[in-house]
Amino acid sequence: MRVALDVMGGDNAPGEIIQGALEAIKIYPQIEKIFLVGDKEKILEHIAKKHDKLEIIHATEVITIEDHPGTAYRRKKDASITVATKLVKNGEAQAVVSAGSTGAQMVAALFGLGRIKGVDRPAIGTVLPTLGGGKLLLDAGANADCKVHNLLQFAKMGSVYAQKVLGINSPKVALINIGGEETKGNELVIKTYQELVKLKGINFIGNIEGRDIPKGTADVMVCDGFVGNVVLKVIEGMAFSFSYLLKDEISKSVAAKIGSGLMLPALTGLKKRMDYTEYGGAPLLGVDGISIICHGSSKSKAIHNAIRVAYESNSQGFIEALRGNLDMGEDGNGD
Predict the structure, then answer these.
(1) DSSP letter at 67?
(2) Phi and psi angles of residue 153, each rounded to the nearest 5 degrees, phi first
(3) Is the pLDDT of residue 278 over 90?
(4) 155-185 burial by CB neighbour count: b if 16+ within 10 A, else e?
(5) CA-closest candidate to residue 9, choices 90, 74, 87, 83
(6) From 3.30.450.40, 3.30.70.20, 1.20.120.10, 3.40.718.10, which CATH number describes the 1-119+286-330 domain?
(7) How many CB atoms sit inside 10 A of residue 56's CB?
(8) How much is the average pLDDT of 303-310?
(9) Given this model, what pLDDT does residue 244 score?
(10) pLDDT digits (tens, 9 = 90+) for 99-115
């Protein structure tokens, strides 16, 4: 498999991004080639020697988080994310991975790769650590305002992704709501519930509340991008706060320090289970090609795991599984 890696995107670019590529080709022998897309001179500063599986593709521009995604995409024709996405469009690579501007990556994917037939709006699918393992949340921020047919499409795409990439047989699909009853919630979720019950091809288990998310009650958790992004940021904030409070309490006494030493293996295991970098990047579901979005603060571990996600998506034929299976009518369904 060949991957186009935008090495100029993210808080730790290009050093940590390139290091992630180096780690990926060591860990995953299935990776045939990683195209390092970005400023050639800056890239060479981080590569000690030539590697057969690495190829530099020079790009003179970068779309930053300060740029308006649509405007920057039109003006910065040689931006790294644009060039990387074109490699996928042209068949030179099978996936694009970036930790840069999420908006820019979405625009590049929409205009560069296009949407799969039947998809109105692509969604960001983020795998969250839960008591039941990694579970898929979508939309995690691409669409703040949604209609019923958007959420139905998210449910279908999420179900296929959970089966093909996460390896979950008959994944349990749930709608995030303020209560378990089908009559709870706003107009959008009430109408969506009514349509999801009738939707064939998915294992819909009903509504789940916010407290059910970390339990891993559902394999695929569906919501609009506004709710999804709030959920994602709360979980990230809670993980950070828990780690900070734990360290603070341990530092208060000698007994706690000794006890923490004895508990180190358990604490290490807990940290790994709650570490988002273990799950790699978030796929942009619904575009006609594999586009993996990484957290802006991603370091090498997150990058090499994102490359793994790209490989798994490609090897399991995720895009092919979606094509032709999502057409829900000219005007959508359920509005």
Answers:
(1) S
(2) -65, -40
(3) no
(4) bbbbbbbbbbbbebeebbbbbbbeeeebeeb
(5) 83
(6) 3.40.718.10
(7) 17
(8) 95
(9) 67
(10) 999 999 999 999 999 99
Q: Which one-letter amino acid corresponds to residue 292? A: I
Residue 44 has a CB neighbour count (10 Å cut-off) of: 13
Q: Residue for token digits 């590529």?
A: 21
Sheet holding 220-222, edge to edge: 126-130, 133-138, 220-222, 172-176, 203-208
Place of tokens 């009430």: 190
Closest CA to 171 of 147, 126, 202: 202
Q: For residues 200 and 177, give the distance between their C-alpha atoms in angstroms, rounded to a whole number.
A: 21
The answer to whether the beta carbons of residues 19 and 46 sit under 8 Å apart is: yes
SS3 172: strand
Beta bridge partners of 106: none
Q: What is the 3-state secondary structure (H, E, C) of 234-277?
A: HHHHHHHHHHHHHHHHHCCCHHHHHHHHHCHHHHHHHHHHHCHH
Angle at 55 between CA 126 and CA 106, to 5 degrees: 30
**Could you tell me the fold of the domain covering 125-278?**
Isopropylmalate Dehydrogenase (3.40.718)
- What are the residue boundaries of the structural domains of the chain, listed by start? 1-119+286-330, 125-278
Q: At 179, give phi and psi (nearest 5°).
A: -170, 165
pTM recorded for the entire structure = 0.89
Taking only the tens place, the pLDDT of each residue in 25-83 is 999 999 999 999 999 999 999 998 888 999 999 999 999 989 999 999 999 999 999 99
Rounded to whole angstroms, the Cα distance separating 297 from 251 reads 27
SS (H, E, C) 91-156: CCCCEEEECCCHHHHHHHHHHHCCECCCCCCCEECEEEEECCEEEEEECCCCCCCCCHHHHHHHHH
